[in-house]
Amino acid sequence: MKKVAIIGVGITPFGELWDDSFREIGIKAGFEALHDANISSDDIDAIYVGNMSAGRFIDQEHIGALIADYAGLAHNNIPSTRVEAGGASGALAVRQAYFSIASGMNEIVVVGGAEKMTDIGDVEVNDIQSSAADQEWETVFGATYPSLFALMARRHMHEYGTTREQLSSVAAKNHRHGSLNPKAQFRREIKPEAISRSPVVSDPLRMLDCAPISDGAAAVIMCDMGIAKKYSEHPVEVIASAQASDTLALNQRKSITEMLATKIAGKKAMEMAGIGPADIDLAEVHDNFTISEIMAVEDLGFFPKGEGAKATLDGKTTIGGDIPINTSGGLKARGDPIGATGVAQIVEIVEQLRGKADKRQIKDAKIGLAHSVGGTGSSAIVHILGVGQ
Amino acid sequence: MTKTPRFWRENKNRYNLIGVKCGSCNAVYFPSRIICPDCGRKSMGKMDKFKFSGRGTVYSNTVVHEAHEQYEMQKPYAIALIELEEGARVLGQIVDCEPYEVQIGMKVKSTFRKLGQDGKSGTIYYGYKFVRERE
Ligand SMILES: [Zn+2]
User: Fold this and answer.
1) Mutate to test the interface with B, among A148, A247, A251, A255 (most CBs of B within 10 A)
2) A-B interface: how many C-beta pairs under 8 angstroms?
3) Would you say A96 and A48 are in contact if contact means Cβ atoms under 8 Å apart?
4) Complex ipTM, two decimals?
């Protein structure tokens, strides 16, 4: 198996990008990454695109070919593949690119992730988001996507005494990090009390517990480590890639206060990298809701089960803390254009490992982890990146 | 969201809380599955229909304030994961009580109700909801 490197990254601002179409944002991120890697489109062997639901958001399927075309690559006839796993679509695209390079089939691959969510109304967006859950046995009874995470939050509070104040500390911390990220959708701090008082979406979750609706795209250039030095002085290595599945519906799981898929993918990735949670300098985790980040930091082994919420309130996951989580602002503050999210996490880790994260920089960061979730934990994908291995 | 034929296909099971019991390990499942996840191939052809009593306890709950379009009229409403007395868990609405009255551990039983409607004059569809079981 070949070693795989990341030699270029690109990302658009996240938010409500009224003036830009899906194709425009996809291409912007892609070209920024190509420029960063100092390669030309003639060097590319394949494209993978993470996208959850363009068919419903913009009435457009066949996203692989669309992106290849508008990137000016149609005349090169480069294979382009669209990848879907709900909220983990972008991360799964990164993983497919990893496979294709590790196997020796491809040398240089572009991975893009994009979603354009604001062309339609919020009501319809909520409907589409819930389609990553079980339509036949959850949403049909009136369950919304946030309500399924509310069920997890309520049970987590019941079993571990997790509090409203602790939930709010997750969002407050991610907004603080987001305020330092020029590409973030929200670049202002929010007081924990304002989060605790925001309108109820699905009790106990409130509006400011939820990641926003966003447009945006991100891209990375991955290549065979053997040729990476030609393009980049300090290539970042993908030292592990792991994925796990769980039941589609929440009612089928033994526990709803953990995401078993996260636990398994995290454990596999750390075994592959030959490291433990304590060796990781920073992580981007899937905080689509505040409770999701609490479960993620527990399930990835950064904190014992039931102690993730307290650790967050105590400041252990902030920039400068024991294990900085979501230095980009996370899904909550950077924004969550679904298909782009998993790729945007990789962009943040690469910038941190290159020492180019500016005000968000974690000193001497050598190893970073990215964790992405589809549905209510039905898919989980973990990547570990490193420099100077 | 609810496309009618897709919904009708499961009507019998939604009306009567019918799932399956694995003939190999006796585990019960709702909704029905063709294969027992624990027994795999051994369970093929041994997954027999199983009717749940509809009695159970609330495992976790929430009150939905921002609903999908077809449930707009009902909000705020209570949703819960219910642990049925036979073992499986189901998701359902809890009705006939204040939504904030619902708590983990509360005893409930199933009832047959209208679930929703496709559009204003569209098909009405039915299934189970749960009500509080008073001692
Ligand atoms: Zn069995």
Assistant:
1) A251
2) 103
3) yes
4) 0.95
